[in-house]
Amino acid sequence: MAFSTTTLLQSVAGFGKLMGAELPTPGPPCDGEPTTSTGMNSRTVALIGEEDSWDKALAFGNQGCNDQDAIETILTKDGDRYKCVNINQQPSLHHPSLINHKIQMEPSSYPTDLHNGSLSAVNNSLAELPAISCPIGTIPILQDIKGGTINILSFHTKEFGERAEVAGAKTNDDIYGTSVSINVYEPKVKEKTEDISTSFTVLLNAQNDSHLEGIGAGSIVWPSFRGDRFARFHISWMDRTHSGHTQCYDHECPGFVQVGKIGLGGRISPVSIYNGPQYEINVLLFKDPKSKDWWLASGNTLIGYWPSQLFTNLKDKAISAFWGGQVGGPTVQQNFPEMGSGHLASEGFGKAAFVRDIKIVDGNNEYVKPDIHKSFSASSKTTCYSVDSFGQGESGLHVYYGGPGGCNS
């Protein structure tokens, strides 16, 4: 089954593009100014007044933070610098909808199979997400080489629209979470561009044409992010209406509440080698049935959550899910990057990238296999990228995807 970019990206939309509209450029996180009883500094209170405004939330989302505001600074073996910030001073708590928000350190319950660890990889090697040894009571915030916050939003100031391509699997249903094992490669993306290549899972709710919300996580190769072509672990959430488009990564605007020590934006290692060892990461997204917050975990490691107050449609459930690859960026149509392993899906295990053991969470808070009659696999650019072998097997529901790029339009 083939589909146009419009067909999939209206569902994987904005998020499927993993790119944002023009947004104010935030400053570094956690201002050192004195805070009010709400945990917000005087400049923040003056900015928002009585309004619950996305524009203003983005304008002050990451307040200034200098070295003395960090409890500890950690330099990883990959050269990434993280500041360990008091968990109660993280950027998410600057969002006007999260004033007086009480941080939840764990969900009220777990979907069946998550808490006992049965969703971990079987007979495959797990890649390691960047675990940062911050002190108790703090969370890691990635800094740029000079010590300031990395301003992801400043890299992407235009809506890419039709300039994104995807390949993978999608299901439409009432969805309260998902789990998936994502095969991690480092596809080649042209340097000195703002283009990206991702292996991601996304949950979406677009109950009408005027409002789309989504959350997701996975691996992104993004040269303009840090000046390298490593596979890095990123999360994203979006809120798209006819009047505007908000796309947020990691801690670059207020929203995601982190409770664990995984360093967002950090390098994933090791990665898979074509016709060699294969590595994967487990990504779990699930809704807390009591608080309605959306939690993110990797295996049994909780990373954090998106509070329910951020959402309208997603506060109830997701209605579609996507697993697979995507390329996007301002020059992607002139120079299509690799997706997945950089090889076509028909090459199969060890040579083509895959997502496997795909499950969704149903209304009973249990992991189940997606209804195959409500699911499909496809590529939006079949001359560049392909999908293959979508179906149930020893590794659960799976699909191979990807391609070398470099094709003609």
Short characterization:
The chain is mainly β and 409 residues long. Helices cover 6% and strands 34% of the residues. Strand 16 (353-361) and strand 17 (367-368) form a beta hairpin.
Describe this structure in words.
- The protein has 409 residues and is mainly β.
- It has four helices and 20 strands.
- Strands 3, 6, 11, 12, 13, 14, 16, 17, 19 and 20 form a ten-stranded mixed beta sheet that branches.
- The N terminus is likely disordered.
Please tag this protein with its features:
single chain, disordered N terminus, ten-stranded mixed β-sheet, 4 helices, 20 strands, 409 residues, mainly beta
Strands, helices and their partners?
Layout lengths: L4 H5 L32 H7 L5 H7 L11 E4 L5 E6 L38 E2 L11 E6 L21 E11 L1 E7 L12 E13 L2 E11 L1 H4 L4 E11 L2 E6 L7 E2 L20 E9 L6 E5 L2 E6 L11 E11 L24 E9 L5 E2 L6 E5 L6 E8 L2 E7 L7
Parallel strand pairs: 3-12
Antiparallel strand pairs: 1-2, 2-4, 5-15, 5-18, 6-12, 6-16, 7-8, 7-15, 8-9, 9-10, 11-14, 12-13, 13-14, 16-17, 16-20, 19-20
Oligomer: single chain
SSE ordering: HHHEEEEEEEEHEEEEEEEEEEEE
The major sheet is characterized as: 10 strands, mixed
Uncertain spans, ≥5 residues at pLDDT below 50? 1-68, 115-122, 151-162
> Got a strand count?
20
Shape: globular
| Overall pLDDT | 80
Tally of helical segments = 4
Report the helical percentage.
under 10%
Radius of gyration: 20 Å
Q: Report the structural category.
A: mainly beta
N-to-C span: 20 Å
What fraction of residues sit in β-strands? Answer: 25-35%
